[in-house]
Amino acid sequence: MNLQLSEILEGKQTVALGGHIRPDGDCVGSCMGLYMYLKEQYPHLETDVYLEEIPKAYQMIERTEEVKSQIPADKQYDLFICLDCGDERRLGFSAPLFRGAKQTFCIDHHVSNEAFAGINNIVPDASSTSELVFLLLDKEKISRPIAEALYMGIAHDTGVFQYSCTSPETMEAAAELMRKGIDGNDIIDRTYYEKTYVQNQILGRALLESILVLDKKCIVSVVDQKEMEFYGAGPSDLEGIVSQLRQTKGVEVAMFLYETETRQFKVSLRSKGKVDVSAIAKYFGGGGHVRAAGFSMTGSSHDVINNVTEQIALQLEA
Ligand code: 5GP
Ligand code: MN
């Protein structure tokens, strides 16, 4: 898609940016990268960014203190740009602003995205939304803080340049961003590898309690509300657990679920090989990518695990 940002912004005075609920590194990176670019390069525009609470580690990205976590009453934006979000529901609290905007634009890389905005730049093969934002910007005009945000997003969604979604173009984007004078290692250390004591404790617990099913091709682990309360952990402390589970030798699919405050289960799936977990997530009303997807489900953990492993088994047997 040969999109020009300047064309989309033509005639606009007010622009809102929004990402998905429980924002991850790519969501924060892509939103903040584009937000800072608009602030710096289009100062005449009134630009706001809306996100749910940003995990502490990602707050090292500049201007995250300007992020709005509540929407104003009766505000209509000329343009709403939706980033890293595969469907309107996942916008969460900012969805009414999306619905009310005069024009909408979506930049995303989820294979489950059904082009729900007015203008859509959906590239399922792209490593990350941050890489797509990079491609939309004038390279000369990318400042160091913008580069830091986009680099964080790309590094997170590629598992630090290791997942199969990492393409030569991804590495070229990362190289260009490095030339903006960022400390890439520091960003990765502080936002990706560094874990709090609580995060390590709950990770340890999840690994210890994990079980192998489906002829040891699938690994499953659950954390319930009681355990989260015991360790003092919130949902953002559980990021990375499912990737660690996937590293188990011989396993093809990893499934991690945790109980939310509303007594639902948030399920994360990761695949190493032939199983398309986005199809399974879609079947249960969620979405994502071929090798990383998720959804929410009600019922006992036992039932959720049974229902999901049944779908995984169907694919493993195919
Ligand atoms: P995670 O397991 O880390 O929450 O998410 C893995 C991938 O699946 C991410 O790209 C995320 O956006 C997507 N995903 C996770 N949960 C949901 C969901 O409930 N609905 C949709 N549409 N996508 C999800
Ligand atoms: Mn992403």
Write up this protein.
The chain has 318 residues and is an alpha/beta fold. It has two domains: 5-193, inorganic pyrophosphatase (n-terminal core), CATH 3.90.1640.10; 197-317, Diaminopimelate Epimerase, Chain A, domain 1. The protein has twelve helices and eleven strands. It has helices at residues 5-9, 25-41, 95-100, 129-136, 144-157, 168-178, 184-193, 197-208, 225-231, 241-246, 277-283, 301-317, and strands spanning 14-18, 46-50, 79-83, 103-108, 119-122, 211-213, 218-223, 253-259, 265-271, 287-288, 292-297. The strands form two sheets. A six-stranded mixed sheet has the order 6-7-8-9-11-10, with helices on both faces. A five-stranded parallel sheet has the order 2-1-3-4-5. The chain starts with a helix and ends with a helix. 43% of the residues are buried. Guanosine-5'-monophosphate (5GP) is lined by residues 20, 86-87, 90, 110, 112, 242, 268, 286-289, 292-296.
Query: What percentage of residues falls in helices of 4 or more residues?
Result: 25-40%
What percentage of amino acids are in beta strands? 15-25%
Beta strands, count: 11
> What is the helix/strand order?
HEHEEHEEHHHHHEEHHEEHEEH
- Give the helix tally: 12
Structural class: alpha/beta
The CATH H-level superfamily of the largest domain is: inorganic pyrophosphatase (n-terminal core)
Overall pLDDT level: 97
Supply the number of structural domains.
2
Strand order of the largest sheet: 6-7-8-9-11-10
* CA-based gyration radius: 19 Å
Q: Which CATH architecture of the largest domain is right?
A: Alpha-Beta Complex
